[in-house]
Structures are given as structure tokens and as C-alpha cells.
Amino acid sequence: MLSVTEDRFALAEVFTIARGSRSHADVLRVTLAREGVQGQGECVPYARYGESMALVRAQIDGLAPDITRDRLQTALPAGAARNAVDCALWDHEAKRHGRRVWDLAGLAAPAPVVTAFTLSLGSPETMEAAARRHAHRPLLKIKLGTADDMPRLEAVRRGAPDTPIIIDANEGWSAEIYADLAPHLLRLGVAMVEQPLPADADDMLGEIARPLPVCADEACHDRASLPALRGKYDMVNIKLDKTGGLTEALALRDAARMAGYKVMVGCMVGSSLAMAPAVLVAQGADIVDLDGPLLLAEDRTPPLIYDAQGVHPPLPALWG
Q1: What is the largest CA-CA distance in the chain?
Q2: Among candidates 117, 109, 94, 80, which has minimal Cα distance to 280?
Q3: What is the pLDDT of residues 158-193, one digit of tens each?
Q4: Catalytic residue among 95, 141, 232, 239
Q5: Quick check: helix, strand or coil at residue 234?
Q6: N or C: which terminal CB in the chain sees fewer CB atoms within 10 Å?
Q7: What DSSP designation does 47 have?
Q8: What gap in Å lies between CA 40 and CA 32, rounded to an integer?
Q9: How many CB atoms are closer than 10 A to CB 235?
Q10: Which of the residues 95, 143, 232, 242 is marked catalytic?
Q11: Quick check: 146 pLDDT over 90?
């Protein structure tokens, strides 16, 4: 049987992006109990994609008790509900067979991967102070997406003068704003910009110069998204809550690489249970952004391990 619980995790600090702020992460945990074995998965419903806790829970509750991973791919659309169930099915299968998920999927054993650390949107002074506190990180991801972002970016660079930086605009810029900012992004050593324009108004990316790599986030959900990205983006951000689980995430990663895109693996703000399957997808990725647990004041037990090597593969007691 499938059961769903709602969990809330306090954030270490208020987290702000162009669309709003939050002080906690609300997630859904799915538990699959069959044959005396339990598997689990987690998802983060996202209002930007028309999702809510109630809607996603209803989608999961509507599934047949004997749902399989193959049938799930057509029973639910790509999104948070399918993600939690897909990952619970993978975890259940691994525990039932006494093997790790990567063995079942025919993948090499995963290694730790270096992850970005995200600085939320704030005043230039606040962001400079945050950048200084986290300048030791191997990669900083900066949340921007307003018409007044230049002072913020300059402030972050002052706070972390030598740290590599990527930017996430969360669809917050117009083509004109981005064209004006792009030379300054290069001057300040920005390595990549994520979703600078709204996903439904991004055609201009195919017409203007892209002096640094542009990554599709809101514009890329699963393999069906790829044809529309051609000529506009250089990279895709794979998130399990968008793909609908590990199954499609692995397929999207392979298809994106075959189509010539670089790969980023990202996350919503969730617990270690949500990040654990993504560590598999992140193997060999060009950019990894699996810092959700680092933004929390509390986490699952046992949590993922983060250290100087990056984020480690999950222990079996957590997932997989």
C-alpha cells in the first residue's frame, strides 16, 4: 500500500527568490509497504507548476495499490507526485532485493559530488555578508531576478572575490535587462546563468548573443521539453520534482547529452530524502546544485553526508 505524510522542515534562514520568501520547507513523503518491506520517497509540490500539497496528495492517493514503476510513467504526468512514488518504488525494490539502486539501474557506484551553495535574494549588504560567510564554498549560486540586480552581484563578488559563481534569475528578467547585464556577468566571472527569461517568453534567447552558458530550468521538465530548447539554451537543469522521478531523470540526462546539452542537476528545497536519488543523476554532471539539506535547520535521520568532497551517496537506511 501507498501512504502519504506531510512533513515540515524549518529553514536555517529565510530563503528568498524572485517569486517570494519562505521560512520552512513543506514536503510530502510517500511510503510503499509491500511484502514486509518499506520504500520511501519525497517530493516538494511547487506552485509555479500548478502544484499544491493537496493536489499532489490527491494524485498519489488515486493510484492503484499495486502500481509498478512502468505503469506509473503513464499513470501520472511528470511532476512532484510521480517523483515521490517513483523514488519509493526504486527504494522498495532495492530493499527487497538487498541491493543498491545503482546496481538495479545498471549504473556505476556513485561517488561524492561537489555541490553549489545557494545565496537567497536580499539587499546588497545582506548578500555581501552572506557571500563572505560562504566564500569557502567551491561554488556559489546567487538568486537574482529583479531590475536592480547589478548592485547585488557586485556586492556578492566583493564578499567572495575568488569563488566561482553561477546565477539563477528564476524567470525574473526581460530580454532587455539580460542583454544589458550579460557583459557585466562576464566581467564579474559568472560561469552560467539559469533561466534568465520566462519559460513562455524565451524565444529571444535564440536571437540575441549568449556570451555565457544559459541553462533551462523552468523551461525543461522531461525529455519532451528538449526540442523546444534548441538554439536557446546550452544546458538543462534536471530536477526530480520536474521529471517525475529518478526513472525519467536518468533518461533525460542521457537524451540531453546526446542532443549536445551540458547537464546541471538541481533540487527544490527539501530534505536529504529528496536529494538522495538525485545524487545518482548528478554523477558526471557539469554543475550540481543539491544543497537543499544545507539550507535546513533540521533534516531526516540518517541525513546525507556533506563534507569537503561534496555530497555523498545515501546510506541504505535513508534511501536506495
Answers
A1: 59
A2: 109
A3: 999 999 999 999 999 998 899 888 899 999 999 999
A4: 239
A5: coil
A6: N
A7: G
A8: 6
A9: 22
A10: 143
A11: no
HEC sequence for 258-298: HCCCEEEECCCCCCHHHHHHHHHHCCCCCEECCCHHHHECC
Query: What is the phi/psi pair of residue 147, to 5°?
Result: -80, -5
pLDDT at 229: 98
Q: What are 246-258's pLDDT values in tens digits?
A: 999 999 999 999 9
Q: Which stretch of DSSP H or E encloses residue 2?
A: strand 2-17
For residues 116 and 289, the answer to whether their CB atoms sit within 8 Å is: yes
For residue 18, what is the DSSP state?
Answer: T
* pLDDT tens-digit series, residues 208-219: 878 899 999 999
Residue with cell 557585466: 184
Of the listed ranges 27-31, 108-112, 182-186, 300-304, the one predicted with least confidence:
182-186
Q: What's the confidence (pLDDT) of residue 180? A: 87
Measured distance CA(189)–CA(116) in Å, rounded? 16
Strands lying side by side in the sheet with 140-143: 117-119, 140-143, 165-168, 190-194, 214-216, 235-238, 262-265, 287-288
**Residue found under cell 519532451:** 224
**Residue position matching grid coordinates 545557494:** 118
C-alpha span between 300 and 318 (Å, rounded): 8
pTM for this one?
A: 0.96
Which amino acid makes up residue 49?
A: Y
Question: Which is nearest to 285 in space by CA: 311, 254, 261, 262?
Answer: 262
d(CA 213, CA 67): 40
Helix (H) or strand (E) holding 14: strand 2-17
Q: Rounded distance, CA 281 to CA 177, Å? A: 33
Q: What is the pLDDT of residue 179?
A: 87
- Are the C-beta atoms of 267 and 274 separated by less than 8 Å? yes
Residue 24 CB neighbour total at 10 angstroms: 15
Omega of the bond leading into 302 within 30 degrees of 0 (cis): yes
Question: Whole-number mean pLDDT of the chain?
Answer: 95
Residue 239 among the catalytic residues:
yes
Q: Specify burial of residue 309 (Cβ count, 10 A radius: 0-12, 13-18, 19+).
A: exposed
